[in-house]
Amino acid sequence: AIEQTLSIIKPNAVAKNAIGAILSRFEAAGLQIVAARMLHMSKEQASAFYGIHQGKPFFDELVAFMTSGPVMVQVLEGEDAVAKNRDIMGATNPANAAPGTIRADFADSFTENAAHGSDAADTAAVEIAFFFPEGVCPRTR
Ligand code: CMP
Fold first, then answer.
1. Which end of the chain has fewer CB within 10 Å, C or N?
2. Rounded (to 5) percent helix, strand, coil in the chain
3. Strands ordered across the beta sheet of 71-79
4. Which residues does a 6 A CB cutoff place in the pocket of ligand 1?
5. Interface TM-score (ipTM) > 0.90
């Protein structure tokens, strides 16, 4: 089915000038960018976005990293967009990311793993509304 998913290019990948390289991978895979926004998240925003991880041992480090510089946030739309984006990103822990994936090529650590992607269609809807409360553009073809 045609789905939407939220994608974040994390501060370490932005700092490496890899925004274009990463967005190209999504487009080459047939995912269309239907919304995009660059911002430097506040501690409050990052804590709210990752609220499900509050209390976990990596939470403080994750929030510190995600607020360390600007991120590029986009909504990707296409056939099986949630799973397709996760395939393109590779495993969350870059030590387990397959060769040729975004995390294999651009991650520096488990926390600095270059990209975030929604893990399911229902969480995608919540994450998209978090960054794009005004909605996204209609898909073009
Ligand atoms: P992300 O997809 O952004 O979702 C939560 C993030 O927490 C994850 O990618 C990792 O960058 C980070 N993280 C750091 N340590 C862990 C861990 N042990 N388990 C899961 N996520 C972790």
1. C
2. 45, 20, 35
3. 32-39, 71-79, 2-9, 115-117
4. 53, 58, 62, 92, 110-111, 113, 116
5. yes
List residues forming the annotated binding site. Answer: 10, 58, 86, 92, 103, 113
* Mutation test residue for ligand 1: of 56, 58, 106, the one with most atoms within 8 Å of CB: 58
0.90 surpassed by pTM: yes
Reply yes or no on whether 40 is catalytic. no
Name the nearest CA neighbour of 103 among 39, 25, 1, 3.
Answer: 25
The structure tokens listed for 96 are 């387990």
Tens digit of each residue's pLDDT (9 = 90 or more) over 73-131 = 999 999 999 999 999 999 999 999 999 999 999 999 999 999 999 999 999 999 999 99
- Helix spans in 31-116 (H): 43-49, 59-66, 81-89, 102-106
Position 130 scores a pLDDT of: 98
Q: For residue 8, give the ligand 1 atom closest to its CA.
A: 3
Both structure tokens of 100: 């040729």
